[in-house]
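Dear H.,

Thanks for agreeing to be a second pair of eyes. The structure we're designing against is below in token form, covering all 688 positions.
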């Protein structure tokens, strides 16, 4: 669809690009600009606007999502055309890149079919990501040139020197009906020339330390040539990535529960266990054919991509570790088992690896009982923030990789969730204010730190906003940072325009002259000393109105309640306790269910599909979730938490917290450890 518009001004260079971590390594987003035009992915469309100030206008709309032809498998699933079967497909644009006169749109795609064939139930599904290359030399008429892709769900991407690196996660849970002679049943496929082809054996890597059957697929695409030129599929591999000009690092956080000792005492046989989390890092060389360069392991979880940084051939990593030890006492004669909780602890560390991923230096046991909230490296200096009640901003001297040293720790109320070097001698921080006594978070806080002496950092100025949440707290790409002289910052509360203030005549219906951004409520329910419960079904939240815990569910202890009160619950928060319980229970008990497609999805073994391919999805997409569970570590509990964590990482919803009821003494640390093993380090837990 095209609309007439004024000619754009030529790009002057006075415009902002996507905020990225590494200079020269572009990151995808849903909004891009080249100074002359603005490109936006919205409602399954690529929309192009002139960047002409008050005369900005829409000049083209191109369908990029559902409606485009993504049918790779329908002809192969010919049984899906039978009377008792069902076939469907969808395509959802995720992010994009703009390079000159080429736009590359990255879309999650899925096809699935189910039905009764010869008296037996059959189910097939495929999820993959397509890179659609568009010629946008005529901005009023983008033309699709080619589509190529790879199996899996979209994780992230990078663009370096005209090469697009696409990283997807292929969850290989299929346990039935696969044929050994058909590699497409158990290895990822690549999509080229309209055909799906399994990856070659020499392009699959199996790290010795992984037992995971899922893959991380890395594809390299030549943007100028509009096609894939190389790929590597790695078993396990990564849920967090960092990329420099020559190397791609994939970090995979895993939960461990290791038996450390066993002995007999009285009538009992005692086994002693240590559990926690560790992260394995895979270093890929992308300068030629993509290959594994080296691997390394650290204790703890990474916060996000900013937890890793490469400088002068060394990789620096910041982690938060949670460790727990316990004993299992068994009386075999009486068939009795009991658990004894010993100790637990949370701490933080910084690690330095050389080019071969050998550990050369470290700082451990930093800020016990706190966790990392933000990290930023700037050359030979590293900054990271931990938080519990106040914000220690640590400055680390990394000039000697073998001997990193903490040089200062600035303690101020609140914390920064994102830090950005702001010219010489300044560091910008975006986060939240907090009460020094209780740690309860309040309004958003903008801080400017004086780093002229990087080892004696001070807070030069701060600004408290009349808002408590912005997506910019968790997603760095929407932030626009200009030069220090202009001092402008864009931190939208949402990346999605919700309404237009007016329309411009002659530019097409609904064309915005000025759009406002959706914002979260400025006042949220108070939880200073209150507890909250879950409604029995999808509805608004219920809060106990009396501060006396005896008149409502208690939250751990008074001190823990104060610490946990930092969980601010927006008024529009949606609870889906009973629904999620039904999903998790039905995963393993399929006799009765209200979800028509669930039995076939269970046969596939793909738990994420339960979210994506059933009516549940319309309830859960873009929702805030708090889960109620007894956490007896039954299969239904584990499945529910895993669904929530993985869907949270995919951006399907926000996992705000968990409530334990009917729990045992070790349930809180056990649940906390499991959530952390799934890669989430900031999920509050309450208990009744």
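And this is the sequence the design step returned. I haven't edited it by hand at all.
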């Amino acid at each position: 669809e095209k609309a007439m518009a004024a000619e754009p001004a030529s790009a002057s260079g006075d415009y902002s690009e996507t905020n990225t971590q590494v200079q020269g390594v572009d990151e995808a987003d849903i909004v891009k600009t080249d100074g002359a035009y603005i490109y936006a992915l919205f409602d399954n469309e690529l929309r192009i606007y002139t960047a002409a100030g008050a005369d900005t206008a829409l000049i083209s709309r191109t369908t990029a999502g559902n409606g485009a032809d993504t049918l790779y498998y329908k002809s192969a699933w010919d049984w899906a055309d039978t009377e008792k079967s069902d076939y469907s497909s969808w395509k959802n644009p995720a992010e994009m890149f703009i390079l000159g006169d080429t736009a590359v749109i990255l879309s999650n795609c899925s096809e699935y079919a189910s039905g009764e064939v010869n008296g037996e139930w059959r189910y097939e599904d495929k999820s993959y990501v397509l890179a659609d290359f568009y010629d946008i030399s005529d901005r009023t008429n983008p033309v699709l040139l080619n589509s190529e892709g790879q199996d899996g769900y979209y994780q992230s991407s990078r663009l370096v020197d005209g090469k697009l690196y696409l990283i997807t996660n292929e969850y290989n849970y299929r346990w039935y009906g696969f044929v050994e002679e058909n590699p497409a049943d158990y290895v990822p496929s690549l999509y080229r020339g309209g055909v799906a082809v399994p990856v070659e054996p020499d392009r699959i890597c199996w790290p010795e330390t992984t037992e995971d059957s899922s893959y991380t697929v890395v594809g390299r695409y030549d943007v100028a040539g509009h096609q894939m030129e190389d790929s590597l599929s790695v078993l396990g591999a990564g849920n967090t990535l960092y990329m420099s000009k020559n190397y791609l690092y994939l970090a995979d956080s895993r939960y461990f529960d290791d038996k450390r000792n066993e002995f007999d005492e009285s009538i009992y046989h005692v086994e002693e266990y240590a559990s926690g989390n560790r992260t394995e890092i895979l270093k890929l060389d992308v300068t030629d054919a993509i290959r594994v360069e080296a691997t390394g392991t650290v204790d703890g979880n990474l916060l996000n991509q900013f937890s890793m940084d490469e400088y002068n051939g060394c990789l620096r990593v910041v982690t938060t570790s949670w460790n727990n030890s316990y004993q299992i006492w068994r009386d075999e004669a009486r068939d009795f088992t009991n658990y004894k909780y010993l100790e637990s602890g949370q701490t933080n560390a910084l690690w330095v690896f050389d080019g071969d991923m050998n550990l050369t230096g470290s700082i451990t046991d930093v800020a016990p009982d706190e966790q990392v909230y933000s990290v930023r490296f700037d050359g030979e200096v590293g900054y990271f923030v931990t938080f519990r009640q106040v914000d220690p901003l640590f400055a680390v001297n990394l000039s000697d990789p073998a001997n990193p040293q903490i040089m200062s720790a600035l303690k101020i109320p609140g914390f920064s969730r994102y830090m950005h070097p702001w010219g010489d001698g300044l560091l910008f921080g975006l986060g939240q204010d907090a009460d020094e006594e209780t740690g309860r978070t309040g309004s958003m806080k903008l801080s400017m730190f004086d780093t002229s002496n990087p080892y004696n950092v001070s807070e030069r100025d701060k600004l408290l906003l009349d808002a408590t949440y912005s997506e910019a707290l968790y997603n760095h790409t929407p932030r626009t940072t200009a030069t220090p002289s202009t001092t402008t910052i864009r931190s939208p509360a949402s990346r999605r325009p919700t309404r237009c203030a007016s329309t411009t005549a002659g530019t097409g219906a609904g064309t915005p002259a000025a759009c406002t951004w959706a914002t979260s409520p400025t006042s949220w329910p108070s939880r200073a000393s209150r507890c909250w419960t879950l409604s029995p079904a999808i509805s608004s939240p219920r809060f106990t109105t009396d501060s006396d815990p005896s008149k409502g569910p208690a939250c751990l202890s008074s001190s823990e309640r104060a610490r946990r009160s930092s969980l601010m619950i927006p008024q529009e928060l949606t609870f889906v306790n009973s629904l999620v319980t039904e999903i998790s229970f039905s995963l393993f008990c399929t006799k009765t269910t209200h979800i028509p497609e669930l039995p076939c999805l269970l046969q596939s073994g793909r738990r994420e599909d339960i979210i994506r391919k059933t009516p549940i999805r319309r309830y859960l997409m873009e929702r805030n979730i708090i889960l109620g569970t007894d956490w007896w570590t039954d299969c239904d509990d584990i499945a529910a938490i895993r669904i929530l964590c993985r869907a949270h990482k995919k951006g399907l919803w926000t996992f705000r917290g968990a409530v334990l009821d009917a729990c045992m003494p070790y349930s809180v640390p056990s649940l906390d450890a499991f959530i952390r093993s799934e890669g989430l380090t900031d999920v509050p837990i309450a208990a009744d």
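Two observations from my side: Confidence is low (pLDDT under 50) at residues 1-6, 482-622. The first strand starts at residue 26 and ends at 27.

Warmly,
E.
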